[in-house]
Amino acid sequence: MNMTVAKNTVVTLDYNVTDPDGVLVDAGEDPIVYLHGGYDDVFPMIEEAIHGKKVGESVTVKMQPADAFGEYDAELIQIEPRDAFPKELQVGMQFEGAPEASDEDDFQIYRVTEIAADKVVLDGNHPLAGMALVFTCTVTAVRPASAAEIERGGIDDEEADED
Questions:
Q1: Which of 31, 65, 122, 159 is found 20 to 30 A from 130 (Cα to Cα)?
Q2: What is the per-residue DSSP string for 37-101?
Protein backbone atom coordinates (compact mmCIF):
# COMPACT_ATOMS: atom_id res chain seq x y z
CA MET A 1 0.00 0.00 0.00
CA ASN A 2 1.37 3.38 -1.00
CA MET A 3 0.22 5.77 1.74
CA THR A 4 -0.22 9.45 1.10
CA VAL A 5 1.48 12.08 3.24
CA ALA A 6 -1.28 13.34 5.55
CA LYS A 7 -1.76 14.58 9.09
CA ASN A 8 -0.47 12.13 11.70
CA THR A 9 1.74 10.17 9.34
CA VAL A 10 5.46 9.67 9.88
CA VAL A 11 7.30 10.75 6.75
CA THR A 12 10.85 9.96 5.66
CA LEU A 13 12.52 12.34 3.19
CA ASP A 14 15.76 12.12 1.27
CA TYR A 15 16.82 15.70 0.68
CA ASN A 16 19.47 18.22 -0.17
CA VAL A 17 19.66 21.97 0.30
CA THR A 18 21.36 24.44 -2.03
CA ASP A 19 21.56 28.19 -2.24
CA PRO A 20 19.71 29.87 -5.16
CA ASP A 21 22.86 29.50 -7.33
CA GLY A 22 22.89 25.73 -6.83
CA VAL A 23 25.80 25.67 -4.37
CA LEU A 24 25.31 22.70 -2.01
CA VAL A 25 24.58 23.80 1.58
CA ASP A 26 23.48 20.45 3.06
CA ALA A 27 23.94 17.13 1.26
CA GLY A 28 21.26 15.51 3.44
CA GLU A 29 23.40 12.52 4.31
CA ASP A 30 20.83 11.34 6.87
CA PRO A 31 17.16 11.35 5.88
CA ILE A 32 14.64 13.53 7.68
CA VAL A 33 12.01 11.53 9.58
CA TYR A 34 9.21 13.57 11.11
CA LEU A 35 5.58 13.60 12.25
CA HIS A 36 3.52 15.35 9.57
CA GLY A 37 0.62 17.63 10.41
CA GLY A 38 1.67 20.92 11.97
CA TYR A 39 3.96 19.65 14.74
CA ASP A 40 6.77 22.06 13.73
CA ASP A 41 9.20 19.24 12.93
CA VAL A 42 9.98 20.73 9.49
CA PHE A 43 9.49 24.17 7.96
CA PRO A 44 5.80 24.84 7.19
CA MET A 45 6.51 25.50 3.48
CA ILE A 46 8.10 22.06 3.13
CA GLU A 47 5.28 20.34 4.99
CA GLU A 48 2.73 22.11 2.80
CA ALA A 49 4.58 21.13 -0.39
CA ILE A 50 4.73 17.41 0.41
CA HIS A 51 1.20 17.13 1.83
CA GLY A 52 -0.68 14.66 -0.36
CA LYS A 53 2.48 13.21 -1.96
CA LYS A 54 3.25 9.50 -2.14
CA VAL A 55 6.48 7.52 -1.83
CA GLY A 56 8.74 8.31 -4.78
CA GLU A 57 7.34 11.79 -5.39
CA SER A 58 9.66 14.79 -5.16
CA VAL A 59 9.26 18.51 -4.53
CA THR A 60 11.49 21.55 -4.67
CA VAL A 61 10.76 24.39 -2.24
CA LYS A 62 12.40 27.81 -2.58
CA MET A 63 12.53 29.56 0.77
CA GLN A 64 13.44 33.12 1.61
CA PRO A 65 15.33 33.71 4.90
CA ALA A 66 12.10 34.50 6.76
CA ASP A 67 10.72 31.10 5.67
CA ALA A 68 13.84 29.22 6.79
CA PHE A 69 16.36 30.25 9.46
CA GLY A 70 15.43 33.93 9.66
CA GLU A 71 17.22 37.13 8.78
CA TYR A 72 20.76 37.68 10.01
CA ASP A 73 20.65 39.68 13.26
CA ALA A 74 23.79 41.72 13.97
CA GLU A 75 22.63 42.14 17.58
CA LEU A 76 23.36 38.44 18.14
CA ILE A 77 27.11 39.07 17.77
CA GLN A 78 28.94 39.30 21.08
CA ILE A 79 32.59 40.03 21.84
CA GLU A 80 33.79 38.42 25.03
CA PRO A 81 37.14 38.34 26.88
CA ARG A 82 39.37 35.46 25.74
CA ASP A 83 40.08 34.41 29.33
CA ALA A 84 36.40 33.53 29.85
CA PHE A 85 36.82 30.48 27.57
CA PRO A 86 38.66 27.17 27.72
CA LYS A 87 42.29 27.15 26.67
CA GLU A 88 41.65 24.80 23.75
CA LEU A 89 39.17 27.15 22.04
CA GLN A 90 38.65 26.80 18.26
CA VAL A 91 36.60 28.62 15.62
CA GLY A 92 33.36 26.69 15.13
CA MET A 93 32.99 25.59 18.75
CA GLN A 94 29.57 26.22 20.26
CA PHE A 95 28.54 27.51 23.67
CA GLU A 96 25.18 28.07 25.30
CA GLY A 97 24.54 31.52 26.72
CA ALA A 98 22.02 34.29 27.22
CA PRO A 99 22.06 37.42 25.06
CA GLU A 100 22.96 40.64 26.85
CA ALA A 101 20.00 42.36 28.56
CA SER A 102 17.85 39.22 28.43
CA ASP A 103 16.28 36.83 30.89
CA GLU A 104 18.67 34.31 32.36
CA ASP A 105 16.29 31.66 30.98
CA ASP A 106 16.64 33.02 27.42
CA PHE A 107 19.51 30.75 26.36
CA GLN A 108 20.68 30.16 22.83
CA ILE A 109 23.64 28.61 21.06
CA TYR A 110 26.59 30.82 20.10
CA ARG A 111 29.30 29.80 17.64
CA VAL A 112 32.86 31.01 17.92
CA THR A 113 33.57 32.86 14.66
CA GLU A 114 36.85 34.60 15.50
CA ILE A 115 39.57 34.37 18.13
CA ALA A 116 42.03 37.18 18.85
CA ALA A 117 44.71 37.41 21.52
CA ASP A 118 42.34 38.85 24.13
CA LYS A 119 38.85 38.69 22.55
CA VAL A 120 36.46 36.05 21.20
CA VAL A 121 33.69 36.82 18.71
CA LEU A 122 30.49 34.81 19.23
CA ASP A 123 27.60 34.62 16.77
CA GLY A 124 24.13 33.62 18.00
CA ASN A 125 22.66 33.46 14.48
CA HIS A 126 21.96 30.10 12.87
CA PRO A 127 24.75 29.41 10.34
CA LEU A 128 22.16 29.64 7.53
CA ALA A 129 20.46 32.82 8.81
CA GLY A 130 20.00 35.41 6.10
CA MET A 131 20.22 32.87 3.28
CA ALA A 132 17.61 32.00 0.69
CA LEU A 133 17.54 28.21 0.37
CA VAL A 134 16.31 25.67 -2.16
CA PHE A 135 15.13 22.46 -0.47
CA THR A 136 14.73 19.45 -2.78
CA CYS A 137 13.32 16.24 -1.33
CA THR A 138 11.85 12.88 -2.24
CA VAL A 139 9.35 11.03 -0.05
CA THR A 140 10.92 7.63 0.66
CA ALA A 141 8.52 6.26 3.31
CA VAL A 142 5.14 7.06 4.88
CA ARG A 143 3.58 5.18 7.79
CA PRO A 144 0.78 5.85 10.24
CA ALA A 145 1.98 7.53 13.44
CA SER A 146 1.49 5.65 16.69
CA ALA A 147 -0.90 7.02 19.29
CA ALA A 148 2.08 7.82 21.53
CA GLU A 149 3.80 9.79 18.76
CA ILE A 150 0.64 11.79 18.09
CA GLU A 151 0.15 12.49 21.81
CA ARG A 152 3.78 13.56 22.19
CA GLY A 153 3.75 15.51 18.92
CA GLY A 154 6.92 13.84 17.65
CA ILE A 155 8.40 10.54 16.58
CA ASP A 156 10.23 7.95 18.62
CA ASP A 157 13.91 7.92 17.65
CA GLU A 158 13.95 4.13 17.87
CA GLU A 159 11.02 3.86 15.48
CA ALA A 160 12.64 6.37 13.11
CA ASP A 161 15.76 4.19 13.00
CA GLU A 162 13.64 1.23 11.88
CA ASP A 163 12.34 3.02 8.76
A1: 31
A2: TTSSSS-HHHHHHHTT-BTT-EEEEEE-GGGTT----GGGEEEEEGGGS-TT--TT-EEEE--TT
Q: pLDDT digits over 127-147, tens only? A: 999 999 999 999 999 999 999
Instruction: Identify the CA nearest to 68 among candidates 99, 85, 51, 43.
Output: 43
Using the 8-state DSSP alphabet, how is residue 128 labeled?
Answer: T
Cα separation, 63 vs 42, whole angstroms:
13
Task: Decide: 32 and 42 in contact? Cβ < 8 Å.
Answer: yes
Neighbouring residues of 121: CB distance < 8 A, sequence distance ≥ 6: 77, 78, 79, 112, 113, 114, 115
Q: Do the beta carbons of residue 79 and residue 113 sit within 8 Å?
A: no
- Kindly calculate the radius of gyration of the chain based on its CA atoms and give it in whole angstroms: 19
Alpha-carbon distances, residue 93 vs 90, 104, 112, 121 (angstroms): 6, 22, 5, 11
- pTM score: 0.77
The vertex-67 CA angle with 62 and 32, nearest 5°, equals 75
**Which is it for strands 32-36 and 9-18: parallel, antiparallel or unpaired?**
antiparallel
